[in-house]
# Entry
Amino acid sequence: MQTFHIHIRGIVQGVGFRPYVCRIAEKMQLSGCVSNTSDGVHIAINADEKKAKVFYQHLIQDPPVNAIITDHSIEEIEKKKYLGFSIIHSITNTEPDLLLTPDMAICESCREEIHDPSNRRFGYAFTTCLNCGPRYSIQTILPYDRNNTTMHDLHMCEQCDAEYHDIHNRRHYSQTNSCPDCEIRMRYYEGREQEAVSREQEAVSSEQVVERACADLLNGLILAVKGVGGYLLLCDATNAETIKSLRDRKQRPAKPLALMYPSIAAIENHLNLRTIEVQALKSKAAPIVLCSIKDQVSICKDQIAPGLDKIGAMLPASPLLELIAAAVNKPLVATSANLSGSPIIYRDQDALENLFDVADRILTYDREIVAPQDDSVLQFTETGKQIILRRARGFAPNYFPNPFTDHTEYILAMGGELKSAFAIQQKHNLYISQYLGDQGSLESQDSYSRTLEHLCHMLHFEPSIIMTDKHPAYYVSVKGRKMAEEQNKELVEVQHHESHFAAVLAENELLDTDEQILGLIWDGTGYGNDGQIWGGEVFMYHNRQI
# Structure
């Protein structure tokens, strides 16, 4: 009997790939092992060549639903006899070379469980499985294992541990597994004066927390609720007085507010939905989707989206939000919990210190967030083309497929000053950070720096080239130039409007075209190549030159 080694890269961690490999191996009566490493999934099997290839093709052609395979290989290795098939401990002695798994919205199976009175997870606000739950937002290092997440100190009860080791259970090796018997503790704060009360004294049951939160929402209060990537501000979207209070407290007089609905049917009561919009709303990213408003609606549309004919709608992305939305059974305003001009608040202590300026109540829990993210925002054109307006939870930090695979340099692109994000090119993988907001405040700059440090730490990434905008005063450009000088790295400066043109070319797979392409860029003013203010520009692209 021969021994074969299979290596698979891509989004293959946190999606149930190892349990899937175990089930296929059991079905085919193969012996061997599977493990996560920093560069993907590694599998060893005892089999003849024909059976090994059948097994290999099965894995590649029909992977788990949330997996994306970017590269794979099989080779015969030195013979080693295995007894049965097992998942072995992860190995971390290689340079990271895989895509990071984004956070995934609650799946339909978990949704059914938390609404089923006969299920032991009925009403449990942190129900997850292999197909859903937090990933990127709680991961501290690679590879993806529970001890490398912020759940490392939360131990599974006997029943959860049995599910975890049951090859036929959909929670087999589910790293975020928990239940009411080993729950993630929630806490409910009803006023600023309670900040001095110990956390243990504030602990109440999950059912009590949800009941109190829903009652307060229906009574016109504003809640700050810890979501997957940070805190959200929730209030009744049919209560004009409450919405006005939210706008006044948040100093947001006219900017539109997103709405969270309990179901697609509830959204259709107020908004016009096409099939593509329904699919996006129900996707694992669970983004905010801009949809046109119907003529007669019960929501306070003038207070929610003043002067606009569209509203951003979303479905609950987490079990906690699902329970709240279902119990309230009304559309809820759901907007990022932040202070004016600052990034989303995600640390519990920061929430308790700052959010009572906006919220009447704060609902938090003991699972920490290490990669804060706002909700992603999409819209669709009349012809059905998807436009990502804010790339964050559910989409970040991967970009696939990578249009720059012919580049082998390790590149850090610092991005722009407004609606900022940075990009990392490492080997054949491209990572684009979550939306990091405008860099005009110290808080936003701190968030940018922490996110960059976190992702570089996870990927063991050190750039050989740092790219910045040519503008001499952008915070991100100043930071990039300083990094290049201190680390003795090559610095490449790019004119802002040329970068927009290049991005459109890459998005439309035109970087390698032989044709001449005319580009008209209308993006306001920018710092020109001649040191002057540039407005709208016209560029010609040919032979990979602008």
The longest strand covers residues 2-11.
